[in-house]
Amino acid sequence: MNQLSVSMSNLVYSKPYKYCPNCRAELVTRHVDDRDRLACPKCEFVFWNNPKPVVSLLITKGENDVLMVRRAKEPLLGYWCLPGGFLEYEETPESGIKREVKEELGLNVEVGRIIGVYRIDNDPRGIHLDMIFIGKIQGEPQANEELMEWRYFNQNELPSQIAYKHREAISDYYFQLKRDSVDWEKIDALRKKLSTIRGGSSISTVEFLRKDRRSH
Questions:
Q1: CB neighbours of 151 closer than 8 A, spacing ≥ 6?
Q2: Are strands 128-137 and 84-86 parallel, antiparallel or unpaired?
Q3: Same domain, yes or no, for 12 and 93?
């Protein structure tokens, strides 16, 4: 039996090579680094099938509205997502997201801080690592042929069909805003003051916040 017919559930690729891209020998399945992988029996080529890097941009209007685009092509036709796409070989994440937003929406963008990196395991094309940034635009978006439409959604009224991990990223962004608005230095100073009043016994920030909330 050809070793390429091994059960796909034991392999880490979705669209396997059949022949070696270096010497054109037929690939076989070999156990490499604790996994079954396609490898060349002649030149030692291994198909590692690493995740592909992608970038996305979270753009807001006001305090609560998020710009989303609706896909006009498969995969995930009709699903909403943040603007973005695959990185080109020579690009940085920042230059890649600028290019993608220009292509998709016809706008120049100012890229801000990163929100997070998300493992995209719900795309039929394979596993991706999505680097999601916040950004600012000027002007009115103009959707290209890859998009059905664009729209601003309130963070509390997002569409039901959202692709990738973009719902999670939007939630993380607003959580980070709330976290960053807390004056942690002031809270810590008050906590230390209360500890002194109690005769030097320590009190955690969580305990202090609970006591402070009960006193109001």
A1: 67, 68, 70
A2: unpaired
A3: no
